[in-house]
Each structure stands twice: as structure tokens, then as C-alpha cells.
């Protein structure tokens, strides 16, 4: 597993193991990501009539070495719009995979694998709500210090 993060944008991806990748591509894993973010930057620059780099820092990658870390990252990614106050309810954020995981519609996500990590769909939903409640409590405590 590989985590790609851009300030407040987090993507959890599974990169194939080296033995699953043809030799000619092993040293070029970064190229599709580079192309994606370059295209994104060009589109934003064109739309807003601007030039230059869109991102201040290079991508950061973290290897996911255990399932507990993966679980925590998924929770963090899904709750990130609440953390940064884009949305009050993470379930309303349309760019999240949360709704895809709880949906019964066909998906290219490894839904069963992830839901099994959480102990099933109902526990997946419960853990997201529980973490959000704990997060809100921490935010409220911090806000109280500001008064």
C-alpha cells in the first residue's frame, strides 16, 4: 500500500508488488502520478489564468505496513473534510469513497477487503461515527480554550 498526500488531499492506493509489475515499468511507478498531477495543475492554471507550480511540496508517500495503520488512514481520509471544515458531515462529501464502501452498487474498490478489516459494513459505519464524535469533542475542547 502507498499513501499519497497533498496538504489536505489524501489518497490511499494499493500499488502492485514488484513481482506483479512488468520489468520495464518497475522503475517508472511514479510516472502515472506525475502525469496526473501535472495535468491537474495545468487544468487549474488554465481555468484560473495563472502560471507556475500548484503544489508547494512534492508528494509524500508512506508505506502501509500493517492493517491497523490502514484502518486509521481510511478513517482519517474519510473524516478529513470535517477536520478542515469543508463539511459538517463526512457522509455528504461527494469526493470521498465512504459512500462507495457502504453502497451495494458495483465498484472497482476492494470493498470486501476493507469492510472485512473493520469487521463488516455496520462496524465500518460505526467506527466512522465514533471517531467523528471523538474528533468533535477534541475540537470543542480546543475551541473552549480560545474563549
Structure description:
This protein has 147 residues and is mostly helical. The protein has 2 domains: 1-64, no CATH class; 66-147. 52% of the residues lie in helices and 10% in strands. It contains 6 helices and 3 strands, in the order E-E-H-H-E-H-H-H-H. Strands 2-1-3 form a 3-stranded antiparallel beta sheet, with helices on one face. Helix 3 (67-83) packs across helix 6. The chain is globular.
| N- to C-terminal distance | 42 Å
Structural shape: globular
Total of DSSP H or I helical runs spanning 4+ residues: 6
Question: Rg from C-alpha positions?
Answer: 18 Å
* Average of the residue pLDDT scores: 79
In N-to-C order, the SSE pattern is EEHHEHHHH
Number of strands: 3
Question: How many structural units, i.e. domains?
Answer: 2
**Spatial strand arrangement across the major sheet:** 2-1-3
Helix content: 40-55%
State the gist of this model.
With 147 residues, this protein is mainly alpha-helical. Helix content is 52%, strand content 10%.
